[in-house]
Amino acid sequence: MRSDPAEYELVAPGSLTKVVSLLAEQPGAWLPIAGGTDVMVQYASGKLAAHRLVSLWNLPELRHIEVSDSEVSIGAGCTYADLRAHKVIELEFPLLTTAARWTGGIANQNRGTLGGNIVNASPAADSLPALLVYEPELIIVSARGERRVRYVDFHIGYKKTLLAVDELIRAVCVTRGLTGYTSYARKVGARNAQAISKVCMAALGRLASGVVDDIRIAVGSVAPVPLRLLETEHSVRGEAIDPALVSRAAEIAVGEIRPIDDIRSTAAYRSAVVRNLVTEFLQGLIADRQGA
Amino acid sequence: MSPLGAQCEVSFVVNGEARSVLAYPMERLLDLLRRQLGLTGAKEGCGEGECGSCAVLLDGALVNSCLIPVLQAQGSKIVTIEGLAQGSQLHALQQTFLDCGGAQCGICTPGILMAACHLLNTKPQPTLDDIKEGLSGNLCRCTGYSQICEAVAEAASHGDDG
């Protein structure tokens, strides 16, 4: 059943300060809407529970990318198109650029925002595994002030996050200076464009003298939250990489995920894909070592 | 449920013409274009941002108008399919779509033309992969996409995107 616009209120206060004041005055009463790529879909199908919305679209405080010596701070209102167009991100955080390219078609990339996708907290969002491996911090703002939280702690359950009702994400900060890493990303879905992934994975790995010096693997659509495979990483970190280690790690990865059957895929298929992707990523590290 | 929102005045420039309308702020831009402004070129396919048949340019950016609450279009410049031709002079893309047979039933065609227009504005010499990516958010259920991609490549080869 289509929603009736007469039953909804939408305001656009025009500045971040005014938005957080509104959220503080009536906590829980207002649903923030940025580019609308999720909220408007719920609205159109008559499933949007909130009836009072506050627009974050194009707030200047949220729509810029700042590069300092130590970090890149991405405003939460930056779109996927903004991310794709940014040269420092492309050079130093290529998995974010790749994930931005994979997110929807061009029209949705022009509207969908990084902050919106984080707060929407879909375990199937392609950008979230890529973010996880870069270990960002989120700057969270409210009328009470600002706090920084590690992104890895942010998703606490299916569509549940650390964000209080009066808070917004202001920016996502990634630390610069990653050198010598191999980047890996795969999206497995029914088609490349538009389709939501059956499984998506982003990973970083670095070897030092044939030993795994650092490794970070994150997977989407295999658990209630975008998931870092910490046990799998632990099993290979500090080890000499060889085919036996690769197969052991792939098995640990399958044990670590919690996939379900849904309209897009099955738990069994997702497990098989995770085994294959972890194997492919780690074999790539071996190949890089031999090529070096 | 009792009415919550009040109508507000929304002003923007549509196809070069300044317009001001009374609308509920959460009304979808697509509905406003079609019902209040009579611009029925943008079509509703899926209503959830998947098919691209409602695509328009908003301040030069390709968007799905079914996902835009009109308040967020306040003060913007909008180009719809009706604004592509200059009088009786078809846009280069419209001509090559005719020449290459890039349309069948026509429901998806306005959105595809807007996506192609956005592509050529940002990348005047696209590769075939660029064309496929630029149109990846637009679904056509009649044809294959071959003639559509040919038509875009043909328009680009004329080096004339306006």
How would you portray this structure in words?
The complex is a heterodimer of chains A (292) and B (162). Chain A is of the alpha+beta class and 292 residues long. Chain A folds into 3 domains: 5-55, Uridine Diphospho-n-acetylenolpyruvylglucosamine Reductase, domain 2, CATH 3.30.43; 65-175, Uridine Diphospho-n-acetylenolpyruvylglucosamine Reductase, domain 3 (2-Layer Sandwich); 182-291, CO dehydrogenase flavoprotein, C-terminal domain (Enolase-like, domain 1, 2-Layer Sandwich). Chain A has 11 helices and 14 strands. In chain A, the strands form 4 sheets. Chain A has a 5-stranded antiparallel β-sheet with strand order 4-5-10-6-7. In chain A, helix 5 packs antiparallel against helix 8 (127-133) and helix 10 runs antiparallel to helix 11 (267-291). Chain A is globular and about 60 Å long. The relative contact order of chain A is 0.11. Chain B is α+β, with helices and mostly antiparallel strands and 162 residues long. Chain B has 2 domains: 8-83, Beta-grasp domain (Ubiquitin-like (UB roll), Roll); 92-161, DNA polymerase, domain 1 (Orthogonal Bundle). Chain B has 5 helices and 5 strands; from the N terminus they run E-E-H-E-E-E-H-H-H-H. In chain B, strands 2-1-5-3-4 form a 5-stranded mixed β-sheet, sandwiched between helices. The longest helix of chain B is centred in the C-terminal third of the chain and has 14 residues, at 109-122. Chain B is globular, with a radius of gyration of 16 Å. The mean pLDDT of chain B is 94.
